[in-house]
Design brief:
318 residues, alpha/beta, FAD/NAD(P)-binding domain, six-stranded mixed beta sheet, 9 helices, 27% helix, 32% strand, binds flavin-adenine dinucleotide
Length: 318
Amino acid sequence: MKAAVIGAGMAGITIARQLRVQGMEVTLFDKSKGTGGRMSSRSWQGGWIDHGAPYFAARTEEFYSYLQARIPSTACQRWLARVQGIPNNDELVGYIGVPRNSSITRGLLGDLNFQPSTRIARLEREGQRWLLFNDGESLLGEWDMVVLSAPAPQTYALVRDIPEIAVQVKKAEMEPCWVAAVQLSLPLRKAAEVMIDPAPGLRRIVANSAKPGRNNDGVYLLQATADWTQEHLEGSPEQVGPKLCELFDQKFTPAKPPVLLFAHRWRYAFTKTALEKEFLWGRGLQIGICGDWCIGRTVEDAWISAMALGKRISEGIQ
Ligand SMILES: Cc1cc2nc3c(=O)[nH]c(=O)nc-3n(C[C@H](O)[C@H](O)[C@H](O)COP(=O)(O)OP(=O)(O)OC[C@H]3O[C@@H](n4cnc5c(N)ncnc54)[C@H](O)[C@@H]3O)c2cc1C
């Protein structure tokens, strides 16, 4: 049995592994150059900056054990950061990848057949098979089963012609988030490594350089609030980055102003309204859907969703 999995974030890699364990021949696609999705990292001057999830929690014993059993303890470490402010459930500190957060998905990838830089633009059902096409309308191949793990709106674009699935996917809502990486000539003295609601417009500041292995000094990741992001949604990184920098500068007034390294807009950063179903399955169609937005908005939710779908497939859902 051949299965195609779309998306190489935590959910996609987890389900791909599950299907492989069940004996399927799996191909994993992602439009990005590497794995990680919203927990990916950028290389910067020989080091790393985590511009998606800066860290993640393992609130269930199962998730923690799963990672421990599959990723070397050097590549997935507990981060004992000092926190200032009151984090929401999706901001709880727990673990990080080392030297970068995408080391986690990279570690889980193993020798799975991974096709990076391949955006799936269209799916087509032909008889009992799924045909996948890329942006250039080239046929990539035929599969018996397809699993989608992209954020809800990107999943919707691929399933809009399957009414029973599309109507469900449409119920989930996601919200954007602007982030910026800045560097200070001297780290902030006495500041916590994670600051929640540190200044108007900023939801979180995380000391990237305080995480082991990042190989940079004085780098901070600024995460805008949902309202601030909405107000600046359609600005360019060149316009929005300096504004985020200003919010930081006004609050902390460092000796030298921070240097903006980059700004990035996550158009589908967080789940606003979850589906409240662990996964979706198209009866008789051999198509499955998983991802954080099925049940929540964390890395662990993405894993739980994928594991639940994998279990159901192993039990032989049709
Ligand atoms: C700024 C930020 C901060 C966050 N902070 C935290 C935190 O502190 N703790 C926490 O637990 N979570 C946090 N999160 C949320 C966390 O990152 C997500 O819950 C989790 O990574 C979702 O994993 P996923 O596999 O469901 O989706 P994703 O990681 O989004 O993976 C989906 C993948 O699908 C790919 N894709 C999409 N469309 C296509 C297509 N057509 N063809 C091919 N590939 C496609 C994408 O490139 C992506 O790699 C944060 C997210 C952001 C953006």
